[in-house]
C-alpha cells in the first residue's frame, strides 16, 4: 500500500478568519494601522489644515487608507476571502502601495511641522503637527511591516 502525499495546496497556511485575524502575523497589524492612521487624520484636522497643499495629501492618504484597511479587516473577520491565494496578492499589493503613499504623506507632514514652528498659533499647531508626523511615520512603519511579513509566511 503506497502512502499518498497531501496536495500542495494543503501545505499553505490558511488565511485567518474571525478572531484569528488578531492573532496572526501580518494581519495583526491591520488594527494598529487603522488606529494610528485615524490619529494622523484627527491631528492634522485639528490644525485647521494650515498648509492645504501639504496637509491635504496627508489627510487624503490617511483617511482613504483607514477606510480601505477597515474594509479589508471586515473582509478578513467575516471570511470573505474564502481562503483564496488571490487575497494574499491583493493584501500585499495594497499594503506595499499604501506604505509608499504613507511615506510621502509622512514626509509632507514633517515639512508642514517645520513650517508651523514659527507660524500663527505656533505652540499649539506645532505640537499637533509634531504628533501627526510621529503617527504618520509609525503608520508607515506598520504598513511596511505588514507588506514584508506577507512574504515570510
UniProtKB/TrEMBL annotation:
GO cellular component: membrane
Membrane topology: Multi-pass membrane protein
Limits of the MARVEL domain: 21-153
GO MF: structural constituent of myelin sheath
GO BP terms: myelination
Segments passing through the bilayer: 27-51, 57-80, 92-112, 132-152
Major subcellular site: membrane
Superkingdom as given in the UniProt entry: Eukaryota
Keywords: Membrane, Transmembrane, Transmembrane helix
Compartments, as annotated in UniProt: Membrane
Name of the protein described by the UniProt record: MALL protein
Gene name linked to the record: Mall
Amino acid at each position: 500500500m503506497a502512502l499518498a502525499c497531501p496536495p500542495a495546496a494543503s501545505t499553505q497556511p490558511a488565511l485567518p478568519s474571525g478572531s484569528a485575524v488578531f492573532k496572526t502575523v501580518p494581519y495583526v497589524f491591520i488594527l494598529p494601522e487603522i488606529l494610528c492612521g485615524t490619529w494622523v487624520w484627527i491631528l492634522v484636522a485639528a490644525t485647521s489644515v494650515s498648509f492645504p497643499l501639504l496637509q491635504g495629501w496627508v489627510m487624503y492618504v490617511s483617511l482613504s487608507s483607514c477606510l480601505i484597511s477597515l474594509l479589508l479587516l471586515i473582509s478578513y473577520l467575516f471570511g470573505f476571502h474564502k481562503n483564496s491565494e488571490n487575497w494574499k496578492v491583493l493584501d500585499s499589493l495594497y499594503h506595499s502601495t499604501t506604505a509608499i503613499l504613507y511615506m510621502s504623506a509622512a514626509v509632507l507632514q514633517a515639512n508642514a511641522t517645520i513650517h508651523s514652528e514659527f507660524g500663527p498659533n505656533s505652540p499649539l499647531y506645532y505640537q499637533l503637527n509634531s504628533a501627526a508626523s510621529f503617527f504618520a511615520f509609525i503608520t508607515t512603519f506598520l504598513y511596511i511591516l505588514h507588506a514584508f511579513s506577507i512574504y515570510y509566511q
